[in-house]
């Protein structure tokens, strides 16, 4: 149900480095992490960029939005200075560059499709189609046996809060696994997860209950939580059968925690 790493660094390097940057990946590696969650949205010219916020002002200075700015202009913005002077000049990564770095360093990826409003299907399609191209070698290698992947963890896991984005990802690259992200588990979660062809449900650890965890796992889905920064809570939800989670506190909760 969950062939992936159990403990995943949130947004690159959690709270130890500017989020969604290569510096974040380096911080994760320095703490032994070979698993990352990060966010992707489209630039004005339709290129996937690793960013969390649709608008400037927090991780990059100034006024404006990702959806209204071309990728080349985003890529030279400073996504590190807000975090600390030692990270000044850290760029906004292109999605393809981020994936290349992860693959070279053998970092498993939970790719969160984070569309800006109105670009849900376009973003889901772009991320899935581009990921398929970037993993063409793995797909050729692992899907040779009647469609049964020999090493499912060699592929990244796409996820999104946007049902429209996930449906578009499913249609563009059905062979890539998908996790359905929800803040709270709705009553009809199983029907929705099945309709999306999801392999896992990703949910906010704050609202998850033990019976919900049991039901999701009993139905055959993986169960992943965000964002677990307290070791006691981590132990509690792992005890409920949660398969994995992402954490900001990569200094407190290591890759071998589970
Ligand atoms: O993918 C889980 C988590 O990252 C969702 O919240 O806002 O940190 O992208 P956010
Ligand atoms: Mg995210």
Describe what this molecule looks like in 3D:
The protein is an alpha/beta fold and 258 residues long. The protein has a single domain, classed as TIM Barrel (Alpha-Beta Barrel). The protein is 31% helix and 17% strand. It is built from 9 helices and 9 strands. An 8-stranded parallel barrel has the order 1-2-4-5-6-7-8-9, surrounded by 4 helices. Strand 7 (200-204), helix 8 (210-218) and strand 8 form a beta-alpha-beta unit. Helix 4 (120-134) packs parallel to helix 6. The protein starts with 6 loop residues before the first strand and ends in an 11-residue tail after the last strand. The protein binds SN-glycerol-3-phosphate and magnesium ion. Magnesium ion binds at residues 37, 39, 112.
* CATH-defined superfamily: Phosphatidylinositol (PI) phosphodiesterase
Arithmetic mean pLDDT: 96
Number of strands: 9
CATH topology: TIM Barrel
Strand order of the largest sheet: 1-2-4-5-6-7-8-9
Radius of gyration from the alpha-carbon trace, in angstroms: 17 Å
Structural class: alpha/beta
How far is the first residue's CA from the last residue's CA?
Answer: 16 Å
Bound small-molecule species: SN-glycerol-3-phosphate, magnesium ion
Give the percentage of residues in beta strands: 15-25%
> Percent helix among the residues?
25-40%
Number of helices: 9
**Global shape:** globular
Helices and strands, in order, run as EHEEHHEHHEHEHEHEHE
State the domain count.
1
Q: Which architecture does the CATH hierarchy give at level 2?
A: Alpha-Beta Barrel
CATH top level assignment: Alpha Beta
- How is the biggest beta sheet arranged? 8 strands, parallel, barrel
Low-confidence stretches: none
């Amino acid at each position: 149900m969950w062939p992936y790493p159990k403990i995943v660094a949130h947004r690159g390097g959690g709270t130890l480095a500017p989020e969604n940057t290569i510096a974040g990946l380096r911080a994760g590696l320095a703490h032994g992490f070979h698993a990352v969650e990060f966010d992707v949205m489209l630039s004005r010219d339709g290129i996937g960029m690793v960013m969390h916020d649709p608008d400037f002002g927090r991780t990059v200075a100034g006024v404006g939005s990702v959806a209204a700015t071309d990728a080349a202009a985003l890529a030279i913005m400073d996504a590190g200075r807000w975090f600390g002077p030692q990270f000044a000049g850290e760029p906004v990564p292109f999605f393809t560059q981020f994936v290349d770095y992860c693959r070279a360093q053998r970092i498993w990826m939970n790719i969160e499709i984070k569309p800006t409003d109105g670009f849900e299907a376009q973003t889901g399609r772009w991320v899935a189609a581009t990921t398929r191209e970037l993993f063409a070698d793995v797909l050729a290698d692992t899907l040779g046996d009647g469609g049964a992947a020999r090493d499912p963890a060699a592929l990244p896991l796409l996820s999104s809060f946007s049902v429209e984005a996930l449906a578009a990802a499913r249609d563009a690259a059905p062979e890539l696994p998908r996790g359905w992200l929800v803040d709270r588990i709705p009553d009809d979660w199983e029907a929705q997860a099945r309709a999306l062809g999801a392999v896992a449900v990703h949910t906010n650890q704050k609202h998850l209950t033990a019976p919900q965890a049991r039901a999701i796992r009993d139905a055959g889905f993986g169960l992943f939580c965000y964002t677990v920064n307290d070791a006691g809570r981590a132990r509690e939800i792992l005890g409920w059968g949660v398969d994995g989670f992402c954490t900001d506190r990569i200094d407190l909760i290591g890759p071998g925690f589970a």
